Amino acid sequence: MAPQNILKDESGTALVIALLIMVLLTLIGVSSTVTATFETRLSGGKRGSTDAFYSSDSGIQVTLANVSNFDFLTKYVDNRYDPFTDQHNPNPTKAKVVIERQTSQGGAPRGFGISATNVEFEHFIVESTGQDQSDSSLLKPSCTLQEKVVRFVPTLQGGY
User: Fold this and answer.
1) In what helix (H) or strand (E) does residue 92 lie, and over which residues does it extend?
2) Taking a C-beta distance cutoff of 8 angstroms, is the pair 125, 146 a contact?
3) Paired strand residues for 121
4) pTM above 0.90?
5) Dihedral of the CA atoms 20, 21, 23, 27 (nearest 10)?
6) How does pLDDT run across 100-146, given as a tens digit for each residue?
7) Which of 151, 72, 81 lies closest to 109 in space, CA to CA?
8) Fewest CB atoms within 10 A around its CB: which of 48, 60, 71, 157?
9) Phi and psi of 15, rounded to 5°?
10) Terminal CA-CA length for the chain
C-alpha cells in the first residue's frame, strides 16, 4: 500500500469510537455510585441525630409525666435524682435523665406575672441525654436537652 492509502483506511475507527464511549459510560456509572453512597451516608447521619433528639425529648416527657419525680424530700441526694432508678418510671428510649433541684432560685418564675400568696415555688432542671438506638457503631449520635420545671407548692395556713 502506498502511504496515501493508509490515511484513507478506516477499518479500525468503529472500534476506537466504541472503546471511548464505553470509557465514558463507565466514568458516569462510577460517579453515580459514589454520589449515591455519599447521599446515603448523609441521610443516615441525619436520621441518627433526629432519633437521638427524640430519644432525649422522650426522656424529659416521661420524667415530667410523673409528678412524684419532683418530691425532693424523699428521693433526692445532694439535690440530684435519677428518675429511672425508680421502677415506676418506664424508660423506653434508654435516655439518661438527671433532675437537679435549684436551691439558689426562689420565688415565682420570671415573666409569668404571678404574685401568689400561700404558695412556694421549687425550681428544677431536667437534663436528658439520648442516643440513636438503631446505630450499631461505637460513636452513636447523641443529643442533650435541658428543661426548667417550676413546682407550685401550697403552704399550710392556720385555721384551715
Assistant:
1) none
2) yes
3) 152
4) no
5) 140
6) 998 888 777 776 666 666 778 889 999 999 988 776 777 788 899 99
7) 151
8) 157
9) -65, -45
10) 125
